[in-house]
Amino acid sequence: xxxxxxxxxxxxxxxxxxxxxxxxxxxxxxxxxxxxxxxxxxxxxxxxxxxxxxxxxxxxxxxxxxxxxxxxxxxxxxxxxxxxxxxxxxxxxxxxxxxxxxxxxxxxxxxxxxxxxxxxxxxxxxxxxxxxxxxxxxxxxxxxxxxxxxxxxxxxxxxxxxxxxxxxxxxxxxxxxxxxxxxxxxxxxxxxxxxxxxxxxxxxxxxxxxxxxxxxxxxxxxxxxxxxxxxxxxxxxxxxxxxxxxxxxxxxxxxxxxxxxxxxxxxxxxxxxxxxxxxxxxxxxxxxxxxxxxxxxxxxxxxxxxxxxxxxxxxxxxxxxxxxxxxxxxxxxxxxxxxxxxxxxxxxxxxxxxxxxxxxxxxxxxxxxxxxxxxxxxxxxxxxxxxxxxxx
Length: 392
Ligand SMILES: *Cc1c(COP(=O)(O)O)cnc(C)c1O
Known about the structure:
CATH architecture of the largest domain: 3-Layer(aba) Sandwich
Bound molecules: pyridoxal-5'-phosphate
Shape: globular
Oligomer: single chain
CATH topology of the largest domain: Aspartate Aminotransferase, domain 2
């Protein structure tokens, strides 16, 4: 049966696994020709290769990230896998360099997949007291000679803003490729490809989708050769975003900028509120002058905002007391701000750092708040109530 097109007002949802290739000539051509049409195949073949609903949403992300291409995958981790695996060339593989202050899951992927299972030569670049030393980075580049380095503009959970212009200048000087996980900054605050990045990845699960109801990831770039390799890797490694999730994402992306502006406004307001509260020891928010990388944040983001994440410490002076107060605070918040291990949702949610990262960070009473897009006063009211309850 041939489908007749209708005058639909919204992009259609194509759920089919395989597409009708009609005759032997089209079939032959479709398979032979596939990579000659890297942005959109002339004929779709099989959804794991390309799917029109997914391609339509990839174009929306290209417009946001101002990229020459974008490929969606089923999770942010799948996007990480696609991006780095393009540089895995058997015995020819050169060393790779990862900044250490990146998403914990990516650090686990490096340890348990790249090193343990793929046996790759991985190097790490550590921050000193929350700041990256550019001289050290230059030394590492000179000795390791990595194929690429991988970093995030805003780290999790300390919200360190990297001096990205310096980093990109070093990449250019030594002709090192760069892969940037731009999940926290989002294209609203920074578009790394405009500064010469090789590829950008996102956990679309977070701000781009923004409603906590799908998982997705994306890889963006400008180099056409890399696009063809990424298409090839994605289809044979089986990374694929379902058309249903892509279709929902297409709608969610329409409100991305509005949502993110509100995340930034609310987060700044809440960071200010918390930093004047007597029970709060410390607030980490790149918009505050007290943040160690406030100057970097000003230079990179200017007046566009400072992101939607706020990290704070409600510790008292004694260790025992610290833990107790933190627990009382979280328990008092229970019905107002839920404890959910993700971020970037429309609703305000939080995670106690110690529960996720163990004793890696010095402050046991530290809490990571993913500020939502609700009316800001209602979030402040809930926090204030819980802080009062924690006082006793
Ligand atoms: C969540 C996250 C990821 C992983 O994304 P998933 O969609 O959970 O697979 C990668 N990087 C950052 C910065 C994240 O926050």
